[in-house]
Amino acid sequence: MEITEKTAVQAQPYAYDYTLEEWQEWIAANGEPGFRAGQIFEWLYVKRVTGFDEMTNLPKTLRDKLAQEFDFVTLTEVAKYESKDGTVKFLFELSDKNAIETVIMKHNYGNSVCVTTQVGCRVGCTFCASTLTGLKRNLTPGEIIAQVVKAQQLLDATGERVSSIVIMGIGEPFENYEAMMTFLKVMIHPKGLNIGQRHITVSTSGIVPNIYRFAEEQTQINLAISIHAPNDKLRSKLMPVNRRFPFADLIEACQYYVAKTGRRITFEYALMGGVNDQPEHAEELAQVLKSFPMAHVNLIPVNYVSERNYVRTSRDDIFTFQRILEQNQVNATIRREQGSDIAAACGQLRAKHMESGAR
């Protein structure tokens, strides 16, 4: 099935849009010595400058040419909220006045950044705030990268660093696949931000063709699947994407991924009171996932969204659900909630912002 990738029309590319290899090609095409590409990359990701005029070991003629042909991503901070648990959530405005969200989460093992890949989302999950206004456009690679650079610039002030990344913000990453892969190449490059591959997780709602495609990339990056139901009928009700890529096809794609890569998949399961959280749902889910020897289920108490009618599963029922999975030899954990006091779940802050007439 065709997967479209609609991106904003740009006058010229962003400096962050290019991988090191693409910078090397650009440098060669412009008659500059090859080492200049590495210098540009270092200025962008190690020194984290905000303009070409700061790249002081480049000739002025080259700096001028860069300024003529490339832009820096504009992420204007519209709002910044800090939770009592240390979570920091940003609402950024892009150059076209659309808004996106980025979250920094504090863990005992380091700082994790949750990035957005699209302005809005067309997947249509019925419990998610990100889908309320549909898909506006895809982000460019540079607009995704800029979110991590911004987070790192904030952490620079305290001598900390971004230690992990989750691609779980607004949007469906596998519907902006090329930009996502460029983002990943820059994140893991030793001369880029140098984030370990196993410290990066990408989450998809189940875009089946690109699960196969991602398996062929042969990376060490973690894959998470938003499953949220144990069968085709219920999943189609909760996640319209299941009508495009049915449950059986999704499970088959996941089995291929595991066989091809030898890596574990995390299955994300948002628990909704009286909808998908009953013991029979847990039993059925366990039967589905028994075919995955390394499967891990991340149970997520659903976030309250005023435009939706779902309620949270009770604490006792969450533990019952987890216990049933584990009794069936399916590993399950309950996600630790972060940033609830600042609407840190993806799409919530942008939705409030849009109510005021913004984009």
From TrEMBL:
PROSITE patterns: RADICAL_SAM (PS51918). The active site is at 101 (proton acceptor), 346 (s-methylcysteine intermediate). Residues 107-341 form the Radical SAM core domain. It is an enzyme of class 2 (transferase). It is found in: Cytoplasm. It comes from the Bacteria. Keywords: 4Fe-4S, Cytoplasm, Disulfide bond, Iron, Iron-sulfur, Metal-binding, Methyltransferase, rRNA processing, S-adenosyl-L-methionine, Transferase, tRNA processing. [4Fe-4S] cluster binds at residues 121, 125, 128. Its cofactor is [4Fe-4S] cluster. Its EC number is 2.1.1.192. S-adenosyl-L-methionine binds at residues 171-172, 203, 226-228, 303. One of its GO terms (cellular component) is cytoplasm. The keyword Metal-binding applies. Binds 1 [4Fe-4S] cluster. The cluster is coordinated with 3 cysteines and an exchangeable S-adenosyl-L-methionine. InterPro entries: Aldolase_TIM, Methyltransferase_A, RlmN_N, RNA_MTrfase_RlmN, rRNA_lsu_MTrfase_RlmN/Cfr, rSAM, rSAM_sf. Its main location: cytoplasm. It catalyses: adenosine(2503) in 23S rRNA + 2 reduced [2Fe-2S]-[ferredoxin] + 2 S-adenosyl-L-methionine = 2-methyladenosine(2503) in 23S rRNA + 5'-deoxyadenosine + L-methionine + 2 oxidized [2Fe-2S]-[ferredoxin] + S-adenosyl-L-homocysteine; adenosine(37) in tRNA + 2 reduced [2Fe-2S]-[ferredoxin] + 2 S-adenosyl-L-methionine = 2-methyladenosine(37) in tRNA + 5'-deoxyadenosine + L-methionine + 2 oxidized [2Fe-2S]-[ferredoxin] + S-adenosyl-L-homocysteine. GO terms for molecular function: 4 iron, 4 sulfur cluster binding; metal ion binding; rRNA (adenine(2503)-C2-)-methyltransferase activity; rRNA binding; tRNA (adenine(37)-C2)-methyltransferase activity; tRNA binding. The keyword Transferase applies. GO terms for biological process: rRNA base methylation; tRNA methylation. HAMAP family: RNA_methyltr_RlmN. Reaction proceeds by a ping-pong mechanism involving intermediate methylation of a conserved cysteine residue. Specifically methylates position 2 of adenine 2503 in 23S rRNA and position 2 of adenine 37 in tRNAs. Belongs to the radical SAM superfamily. RlmN family. This is Probable dual-specificity RNA methyltransferase RlmN.
